[in-house]
Specification:
This is Glycoside hydrolase family 125 protein. Keywords: Hydrolase. By secondary structure, the protein is α+β, with helices and mostly antiparallel strands. It has 16 helices and 17 strands. Helix 6 runs parallel beside helix 8, helix 7 packs across helix 9 and helix 11 (about 305-325) packs antiparallel against helix 12. The relative contact order is 0.12. The structure holds 2-acetamido-2-deoxy-beta-D-glucopyranose (NAG) (4 copies).
Length: about 500
């Protein structure tokens, strides 16, 4: 015991010495650092110094230099230079190997201001570098970071498939983070707080694991990797979990089915807990749609047949069947069949007729006929359907839906002199999320819409040069989350995409 204590004291001493030289990024990202960019908005430089970056990748540095030639506006370039490398610079919190198998890479990617790994955020944080991904065995490569994230997500899902955010792996030596909000949570099935940070069941969390897997395979064609560790078992767990959640509230004989998942939290906010003793509002069975207790904003759903996550699940489950084909043809067939039946459910039960705009996708339905027409900024959203690879942006129902989402028909569309975009109940009315503007540019082919969106993004960082979670549409100095790595990555991905799609727009100047 004394020896262990001494060892612990020594180790923590080392950590303290190393981190003492590097500022905490939560405070660093709230302050302005010279040199400021040379445009009207004089944006702060926000990259940590080279020795304080968490992961170095020369391809990212080369990309930043290439973008400097293409992006003519100095403020827009500064935003890219800060935001694109943000995940690698600040959130690759630990990278190593499994104690169970020394060949199994693990990557612990934190969300930013909280030392926990969200399945959704981390999959999307990695996706922002997808265009640079290529096959490599090197532990210093982007491919290795992806493999490590896939392996760690598989471990999380195998143990707690209903949970959304997780603690650092024991191999890292990092202590579990205390989640004060979760102290009163009553959750079925139970979990261990040393392993799980939060256990809100969101269909998009397990879909994110499939998305991340597909992204790695899509760029590397490395099907072998998926047969080496726990991936196949984790996919089986994903399928079993999602199948259990096809269940309706009532059985045919009128009795109440036991919900496989329940969640209750003591909170003054309705979106932080579930009705009906933690089971949520009634859902009709037999629609083919998979239930989701929470949204990607971590707010509870009103109707559990949440359409955007069903789109994402169907899309990447179908795509991952190709990976599984190399390992287990029967399981691959089960994946393809499930993906198709979810798509049928969306197309049959997930569309409604809007009085003015025609046929649109609903945000949520209950299968009985009720629907919730809205969109929230967090991806998966209805606006993001094309980037979930679910449909083509030219799809007529999508175009109607897009008009709905980006108009005052959407109850969570915010507009004002600072920025126009969708928000959501997570931060509340009056706050638009830059993430929604980025998503609108990723799904737009309209030059004037894209330029107007870039103008809003570059002018609404409060001079800090990073993408915030939400911004007050009437006051740019009122924003939330100084360090939101996913949104930074999504901005980088979007601007990099424009370099290929519409490079001439990057010559625009924003004054
Ligand atoms: C990144 O490179 C810098 C030197 O440019 C070095 O000081 C730092 O330790 C490297 N970071 C990592 C995580 O390897
Ligand atoms: C550890 O590795 C063995 C052999 O690869 C595997 O069967 C087992 O499921 C692994 N356990 C965990 C927790 O990953
Ligand atoms: C909880 O999880 C931690 C980390 O995985 C583990 O060390 C501990 O043994 C677990 N506790 C129980 C009671 O299972
Ligand atoms: C938001 O939209 C309104 C029109 O609805 C427009 O007047 C305003 O300029 C827009 N705001 C920004 C920041 O572009």
């Amino acid at each position: 015991m004394p020896l262990l204590f001494l060892l612990f004291a020594c180790l923590s001493g080392i950590f303290q010495t190393a981190s003492a030289q590097c500022p905490d990024y939560s405070s660093y990202s709230m302050a302005t650092h010279e040199p400021l960019s040379a445009g009207k908005y004089q944006l702060s430089y926000q990259r940590p110094t080279a020795e304080c970056r968490k992961f170095n990748l020369s391809d990212v540095e080369v990309t930043i230099q290439e973008m400097k030639e293409v992006v003519k506006d100095p403020d827009l370039f500064r935003l890219f230079e800060n935001a694109f490398p943000n995940t690698l610079d600040t959130t690759v919190t630990w990278k190593g190997y499994s104690s169970n198998d020394s060949a199994e890479e693990l990557t612990f990617i934190t969300t930013g201001d909280i030392v926990a790994m969200w399945l959704r955020d981390s999959a999307n944080q990695m996706r922002s570098y997808k265009s640079l991904l290529k096959a490599s065995d090197s532990p210093d490569s982007l491919a290795s970071l992806f493999r490590g994230a896939i392996n760690l997500q598989a471990r999380y899902i195998l143990r707690n498939p209903y949970c959304n955010a997780f603690q650092a792996p024991t191999e890292s030596g990092l202590p579990p983070e205390n989640n004060g909000y979760a102290d009163t949570d009553q959750v079925k099935p139970p979990f261990n707080t040393s392993f799980v940070f939060e256990c809100k069941y969101e269909l998009d969390s397990i879909s994110a694991f499939l998305q991340l897997s597909f992204d790695y395979y899509d760029k590397t064609q490395d099907a072998d990797f998926f047969g080496k560790f726990q991936w196949i078992n984790a996919v089986q767990t994903v399928l079993d979990t999602a199948e259990d959640l096809l269940i309706g509230t009532y059985a045919d004989d009128g009795s109440v089915n036991e919900s496989p998942y329940t969640f209750q939290r003591q909170s003054t906010s309705a979106t932080e807990t579930l009705t009906n003793s933690g089971a949520g509002n009634p859902v009709k069975g037999g629609t083919g749609l998979v239930r989701s207790a929470f949204r990607p904003s971590d707010d509870s759903t009103i109707y559990q047949l949440f359409i955007p996550a069903n789109m994402q699940f169907s899309s990447y489950l179908g795509r991952c069947a190709e990976i599984m084909q190399a390992h287990d043809a029967e399981l691959a067939q089960r994946m393809s069949d499930f993906a198709s039946s979810v798509r049928d459910g969306i197309e049959t039960y997930g569309k409604v007729q809007h009085a003015v705009l025609g046929e649109i996708y609903a945000y949520e339905v209950d299968g009985f006929g009720s629907s919730n027409l809205m969109d929230d900024a967090n991806v998966p959203s209805l606006l993001s359907a094309p980037i979930l690879d679910y449909l083509d942006a030219a799809d007529e129902t999508y175009q109607n839906t897009r008009k709905f989402v980006l108009s005052t028909w959407n109850p969570y569309y915010m507009h004002g002199p600072v920025l126009n975009g969708t928000g959501g109940p997570h931060v509340g009315p009056g706050k638009a999320w830059p993430m929604s503007i980025i998503t609108s540019l990723l799904t737009s082919d309209d030059d004037s819409e894209i330029v107007a969106g870039l103008q809003m993004l570059v002018s609404s960082t409060d001079g800090l040069g990073l993408i915030h979670e939400s911004v007050d549409t009437f006051d740019a100095s009122q924003w939330t989350r100084e360090w939101f790595s996913w949104a930074n990555g999504l901005f980088g991905e979007m601007l990099l995409g424009l370099k290929d799609r519409k490079p001439y727009l990057l010559a625009t100047s924003f004054q």
